[in-house]
Amino acid sequence: MDNKRNKPDCKLIGEDGNIFNLMARAARTLRENDLSEEAKEMRERITSSGSYDEALCIIGEYVNII
Predict the structure, then answer these.
(1) Is residue 3 part of a domain?
(2) What's the rounded Cα separation, in Å, for the pair 41 and 14?
(3) What is the reported pTM?
(4) Residue 22 maps to a domain
(5) Number of domains the chain contains
(6) Do the Cβ atoms of 39 and 31 come closer than 8 Å?
(7) What is the mean pLDDT of each run of 10 residues along the chain (66 residues)?
(8) By the 8 A CB rule, do 10 and 63 touch?
(9) Residue 5: what pLDDT?
(10) Could you tell me if residue 2 is inside a domain?
């Protein structure tokens, strides 16, 4: 992801912690901010990640978790 671009805020704290739910919320936030390619890239990285913690770190690379 282009680190020069500001990451959109995404409310994940206090939500259902299922990684697929969090991934869907983050992807929706990215699409709503005209970042559809980033949403696709993020989903691909998460689905091939090795752990829940790694997946959360990936989400944090794309959105500001609030």
Answers:
(1) no
(2) 25
(3) 0.88
(4) yes
(5) 1
(6) yes
(7) 73 90 97 98 97 97 97
(8) yes
(9) 63
(10) no
